[in-house]
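task queued by scheduler; priority normal; single chain, no ligands, no partner chains; default sampling; output format set to structure tokens
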Amino acid sequence: MNSKKVRVRFAPSPTGGLHLGGVRTVLFNYLFAKHNGGDFIVRIEDTDQTRFVEGAEEYIFKCLEWCGLQPDESPLHGGPFAPYRQSERKAIYRQYADQLISAGQAYYAFDTAEELDEKRKAINNFQYSQHTRNEMKNSLVLDEAATQQLLNEGAAYVIRIKMPQETEVHLNDMIRGDVSFNTSLVDDKVLLKADGMPTYHLAVVVDDFLMQITHAFRGEEWLPSAPVHVLLWQYLFGIENMPKWAHLPLILKPDGNGKLSKRDGDRLGFPVFAMDWKDPKNEEVNTGFKEKGFLSEAFVNMLAMLGWNSGTEQEIFSLNELIQQFSIERVHKGGAKFDYEKAKWYNGEWIKKLDADSLRMHIKNIFGTDLGKFDDAYIDHIIALVKERCILLSDFKEQAGFFFQSPETIDTASLQSKWDEKKKIFFTELIAQFNAQENWNTADLEQTFKALAAIHELKQGELMLPFRIMLVGGKFGPTVFEIAALIGKSETANRIKHVLNLLS
């Protein structure tokens, strides 16, 4: 390579939502780069214009921003190797395809789509390869004059790599060690399409060379394509200039049977995209981890532990801690099962870990205008009081909503069976006692409550559940006297009166 500085890249296709497997690929690239003082590049691989989806590129960058994984170079951020969209680099690739043709390492294929379809119908699992290429319409079969005539006439063609026969291609994978492939099992991949756009196979090799990529990490589903890429490196730039490769393990379904998909999330009720993705073709909205109530810190932490570990018992890592401890050698070879309950556990731990100042904006977003009249000090107090009870950010709505407005529903059914006149009289008098209360704080409110219960010869335990339901609407929430102290004298009295009216 021309540069010894570590340079890694994430190269997504703008074809839809960003699956959590894609975000993990970003994360491992990013952690490796930053651990080694290198650069993280995002390159948009949009050579397949038939699969292009409007808005997908913008969505990818929003997801990376939410996760805190900002590129050093990209179509948005610029950089010394621009442009970073392959569709804007179209003119670059042709010369390399021509170089392969001249060296006899690639060839023109003039077969029409209809002719290829006929072959597929006639031959099960048809592959355009060294076993079938001589039966097809290409420059290996046609003589030079016939080939040139077709080119002069403007006949449509693709350029395919000519895979060598019975050759062992080796790849030293940073996770899997030596991986070998027999070229007789690999088809002649298209390198340049009829519209002049390169396929992934040619573009990824050319761009990695020109952008001086030192390490290439991608999902293990790309392993079958590796021999094509190794040969292209060998043919075009020399194997010594090839990046070091690492093929990351799959993220598996919860039962471990196969790769996790969007359908699994739909079926089992959990997100598989980083953020909400609305498909512009069918208007279908796929829920994201962010909108489900996940903190980005927890999402990134959870993803890092899917297929990697630090070698210690530690499970909660900040992004900086992950950067410090990450090593590609500790990435597992086997797939990692996705566990949504474990994902939620990470989120709950991060909610506990963050202080009120870090959580406040999230809570304001959840409640919207409902918090307009409350100052930050009050909101922070509430966050500190209830965050231990919250697994998702959305849980704050239930666990803290009654601090900001009277509960809309009251669980009177839990009171009916043990409600009697004595309790009604007690709470009626409690309103009067509270209205006369000079010191409105947790300890004094509890003392007033206890004293009045003793006068009425009622057990405090029998009165606590009705009092809680009056203030919060249900059987949950922090210390009931602290709730009363925070919502204030008039609001406490009004909520008691409301429930007394419901029960009368």
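post-processing summary
- The longest helix spans residues 20-35.
- The two ends are 83 Å apart (CA to CA).
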